[in-house]
Amino acid sequence: MNRQGFGAAAAALLCLALLAPAHAGRPCNEPQALKAETLERAMGLALSTLNTLDASGAKVVVMARAGQDLSKYGIRYSHLGFVYQQPDGQGGQVWRVLHKLNQCGTAESAIYRQGLGDFFMDDLWRYEAAWLVPTEAVQKRLLALLLDEKQVLQLHHKPYNMVSYPWAQKYQQSNQWAIETLALAVTADSKAPVLDRPQAQAWLKQQDYQPSTLTITALTRLGARMTKANVAFDDHPDVKRYADKIETVTVDSVFDWMPRAGLVDKPLVTQR
């Protein structure tokens, strides 16, 4: 995206405060008018991220934002999505974001394509972006999938749970959709391509993906379950749940795993 186009996008973002909110990686709150400071900080982060991405030579990155404070669980980032380049129709390229978002106040979700600016407009806890650049081979497979309207929905499961169990299929949270879709893309040309969620999860286990384990007490679980439509624990194994150990897919666990699995060949990039 050129700088003139980015400025136009900034003006368009002012309208977002009037739309029904969709969130991921943070609790749902009542909609509030967009503050000038929020807009300025979000667009500033988006612009600096755009400049770095433009200079990177990458076509696809796996990017995270910090939507809420998860430091008590030892987690830095709350939500990730795929950021990729596509033709802008004028001979250039534009960066887009594909990610899964929870419909605020509900236990449902949808897949969204947004501009880079939109990705940082979600009232962030910390104005920081981080991303991994996949290997060229992984980027190529991911880009083909991300541009395919049918394939990006192939493993999407509408019922949403912020702390869904990584090895079950009852719910699916945002980061879980991302890595299951990553499995779909990476295995597309293999002898055993991933076709559904159980196969994606089996592939992730084979590749030694390790979810994060959060310590959440029974009292906290009860309160969350009674007050939040997008939080449930009934898909977790009893033996782990009763021990207050809740396993789920976090950005931090994905960022730890991808280099270990040989899916990236560059260090983590952080943008503030």
Summarize the entry for a quick read.
The strands form two sheets. Strands 1, 2, 3, 4, 5, 6 and 9 form a seven-stranded antiparallel beta sheet that branches. A two-stranded antiparallel sheet has the order 7-8. It has helices spanning 3-13, 36-56, 116-119, 136-146, 174-186, 197-206, 218-227, 238-241, 251-260; strands spanning 22-23, 60-66, 79-87, 93-103, 109-115, 126-132, 212-215, 245-248, 269-271. It has 272 residues and is an alpha+beta fold.
Structure, described:
Residues 1-21 have low confidence and may be disordered. The strands form 2 sheets. Strands 1, 2, 3, 4, 5, 6 and 9 form a 7-stranded antiparallel beta sheet that branches. α5 packs across α6. The chain has one domain. With 272 residues, the chain is α+β, with helices and mostly antiparallel strands. The protein is built from 9 helices and 9 strands.
Give descriptors for this structure.
272 residues, seven-stranded antiparallel sheet, 9 helices, 35% helix, disordered N terminus
Distance between the first and last residues' Cα: 20 Å
What is the share of helical residues? 25-40%
Query: What composes the largest sheet?
Result: 7 strands, antiparallel
Q: How many distinct beta strands? A: 9
- Summed over residues and divided by their number, the pLDDT gives a mean of 88
Q: Judging from the principal axes of the Cα atoms, what is the shape?
A: globular
Instruction: Briefly note the structural class of the backbone.
Output: alpha+beta
User: Ranges with pLDDT <50 over ≥5 residues?
Assistant: 1-21
Query: What fraction of residues sit in β-strands?
Result: 15-25%
The tally of structural domains comes to 1
